[in-house]
Amino acid sequence: MQVQALQASAAGSTAHCRFRARTVRTCATATVSAPAPTVKPSSKDVCNVAVLGASGYTGAEVVRLSALHPHIKITALTGDRQAGKAFSEVFPHLVTAADVPNLVKIDDVDFAGVDAVFCCLPHATTQNIIKALPEHLKIVDLSADFRLADVNTYAEWYGGEHAAPELQKQAVYGLTELYREQIKPARLVANPGCYPTSVQLPLHPLLKNKLILSDDIIIDAKSGVSGAGRSAKEANLYVEIAEGINAYGVTKHRHMPEIEQGLSEAAGKPVTVSFTPHLLPISRGMQSTMYVKLAGGASVDDLRAKLIETYANEPFVRVLDKGVVPHTRHVRGSNFCLMNVFPDRLSGRAIVIAVIDNLVKGASGQAMQNLNLVMGYPETTSLMQLAMFP
To answer: What pTM was estimated for this model as a whole?
Structure first.
């Protein structure tokens, strides 16, 4: 089957995220007009995978992680502007990855022999590509196109109507630790954004268990430059970013409605947050520092205890020892999220800090977790490598 890639530009809006219809994909008890297909996970010995948009950073990370996977065989890599090139020519650090095909155009991929797809294409492009793919494919989409349950909210924040609203109803939000059982039978998994992953992992259980208040949540988040993608942009030139730090997307960053969608579900009512992201002069890494109000009777120790209880059996989430501050350098190249809770000097408040690698747990690593689930492989397969330091 041939698929013609479509390019579209999008601009964000400052409108607040709608709360209506937001539990379509994430709440197991929600009533849904078009439920996700109930397909049992397959545990094939060999899973033939196509990586669409493999010439970007997230695509490269998928290839790197796939090289460690005993069941994945990459049969197609696409990158329209790099078509015809050896993958190692585009990413020389992966020259030792065995049996990796050359890059081709999406239109030239034969999906008949493909079992699963990692879609690493830009938002707006992805909707038209995915809706044209064969029904037998399992898909993990790393773009933002299927993360928001309400297509009207998508239109507000991404500047255009959703091109596949019926497919949106089938998409399952892929924050693995929170929605594991919903992900397993899914055909289409909407991989979360990096900032929403770093925020929801600590705050979702605290809101759900009513240990913090849903109002006046302040999120000060920082990311490495790789989060902006690989395309050439003046703002990402070395001289523009080195030796400094700057806020961006103030009041209008497109991860805001995704964060509010998840936190609203946890709280059981609409949640609006104050969220400001910042660009760090580092290649990868992300830290979210969250300032929250304690619910009546709750203490900082209660918050830590709930996070420890929630993630006690989770392989990729660690609550650090009391008083230990999470560092981005301690998750570099890994699929781990480190977090901790601290008392604020302001009475009745707490500070929650979480760090991830934006390209791994914030993108391709979590995507691999999700593919492992839908294909019936152990969730940790190819993902247990430790952080790289120094």
So the answer is: 0.88
